[in-house]
Task: inverse folding
């Protein structure tokens, strides 16, 4: 074989050998990939030594999660049945009750998670579709009514749907509510009303957002007044209702009223001013759809060991009938009630008292709050009196003045005495010596006393009281001067 052929065979052999080597390497690489992919599912290809559990430190990693225990035991009961499941749930059916510390939850259906310390409560619907046994949650002395409730005993937080709670003289309801750890309630789409029918109130404040602190206050965002499901153009950007028992100012929610002659209205709504420790002021008013309205102010004052009393002033405009019709009428009335008492120890030499109950003759008949008060409607007479007296012990002088008003509601007549003055000077001896020496002289026995009275009175109709001239008033002046001379007569007879 020539050298050329040997060289050719050698190169060809090397080429074939290199080709098979590269093919074998590629085959091994693909096989390795397949084997590594199979390790994910094939446990036989795992390294048993690397995964030997004996080589792991069991103390280094604790796979068991420790449960935080509650501060007190949870006591639960049900009238129908209690069903426990393997996943740590307890289902209470039929008047279920759960107690934890000062928390109490009652509902027709209650589900408790023993591991997470959470409860879920809801009512059941009867055959007519009416839901009964709805959850009632009570934290301390504050109860909450709802339809669905979720609560966590550890965090003291929960979610409440369709919540109803009474705060002060009103009810606070909300479609969505969240209870905080400090017993506060955060609400969305809520209502505040003083109507007893809180499920469908005749009037209420629609609250977009609110925060309720039980027995303390309610702070709310934009709110709008709604009457008979009709939103009125009366809104406030924010508001505050205090419910604490301490002395403080706050709003007075009105009551809904319906009158055939006045229309729909809100009565006795306003604001209470806590001015000071000795004085307060309550401003209330009424308003009706047919134009009638009333404004009232009531103040109470009390200064210890000095005086005390109440003062009320009302003014009302009553519109009856339709404007432009023959039966249309407008009545303007007012009323003043004043009671003042003075402590007898405050001023021994002077006294002041007042007992005033004065009003126009048609006030009691026009006031809507007196429609069901037969005693006020049938009241025929009213009397008022204001008196003041002052004494001067050093000279024996006493001054007193009285104002008397008598009203007859049947014929609108009024009798006023303004004023009724009385002057009284006790017996005195003008000629008696300050330092007596020897026998008493005859002129020293002369005594003198004086009494006088001045009255100014009128009798007329109540609508002419402030229009009457001085000529209609009757003035009476009486005085007497008495000189006691009994001792002088005795001397003459001797």
Result:
């Amino acid at each position: 074989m020539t050298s050329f052929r040997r060289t050719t065979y050698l190169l060809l052999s090397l080429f074939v050998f290199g080709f098979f080597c590269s093919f074998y390497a590629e085959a091994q690489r693909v096989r390795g990939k397949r084997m590594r992919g199979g390790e994910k599912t094939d446990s036989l290809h795992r390294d048993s030594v690397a995964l030997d559990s004996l080589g792991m430190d069991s103390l280094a990693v604790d796979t068991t999660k420790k449960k935080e225990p509650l501060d007190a035991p949870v006591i639960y009961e049900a009238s129908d049945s209690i069903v426990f499941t393997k996943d740590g749930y307890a289902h209470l059916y039929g008047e279920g009750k759960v107690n934890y510390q000062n928390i109490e939850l009652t509902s027709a259906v209650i589900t408790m998670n023993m591991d997470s310390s959470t409860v879920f409560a809801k009512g059941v619907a009867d055959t007519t579709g009416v839901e009964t046994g709805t959850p009632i949650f009570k934290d301390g002395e504050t109860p909450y009514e709802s339809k669905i409730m979720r609560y966590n005993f550890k965090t003291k937080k929960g979610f409440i749907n369709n919540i109803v709670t009474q705060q002060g003289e009103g009810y606070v309801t909300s479609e969505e509510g969240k209870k905080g750890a400090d017993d506060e309630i955060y609400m969305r789409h809520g209502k505040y009303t003083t109507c007893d029918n809180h499920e469908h109130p005749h009037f209420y404040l629609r609250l977009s957002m609110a925060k309720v602190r039980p027995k303390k206050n309610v702070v709310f965002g934009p709110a709008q007044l709604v009457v008979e499901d009709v939103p009125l153009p009366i809104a406030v950007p924010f508001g505050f209702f205090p419910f604490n028992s301490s002395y403080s100012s706050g709003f007075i929610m009105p009551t809904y009223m319906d009158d055939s002659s006045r229309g729909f209205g809100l009565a006795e709504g306003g604001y209470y001013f806590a001015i000071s420790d000795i004085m307060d002021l309550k401003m209330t008013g009424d308003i009706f759809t047919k134009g009638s309205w009333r404004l009232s102010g009531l103040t109470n004052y009390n200064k210890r060991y000095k005086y005390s009393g109440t003062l009320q002033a009302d003014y009302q405009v009553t519109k009856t009938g339709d404007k432009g019709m023959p039966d249309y009428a407008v009545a303007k009335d007012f009323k003043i009630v004043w009671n003042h008492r003075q402590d007898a120890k405050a001023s021994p030499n002077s006294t002041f008292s007042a007992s005033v109950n004065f009003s126009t003759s048609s006030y009691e008949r026009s006031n809507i709050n007196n429609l069901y008060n037969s005693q006020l409607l049938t009241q025929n007479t009213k009397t008022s009196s204001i008196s003041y007296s002052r004494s001067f012990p050093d000279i024996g002088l006493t001054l007193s003045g009285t104002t008397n008003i008598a009203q007859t509601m049947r014929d609108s007549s009024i009798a006023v005495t303004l004023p009724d003055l009385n002057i009284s000077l006790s017996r005195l001896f003008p000629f008696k010596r300050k330092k007596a020496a020897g026998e008493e002289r005859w002129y020293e026995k002369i005594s003198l006393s004086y009494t006088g009275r001045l009255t100014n009175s009128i009798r007329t109709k109540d609508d002419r009281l402030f229009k009457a001239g001085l000529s209609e008033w009757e003035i009476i002046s009486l005085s007497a001067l008495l000189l006691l001379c009994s001792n002088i007569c005795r001397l003459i007879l001797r």
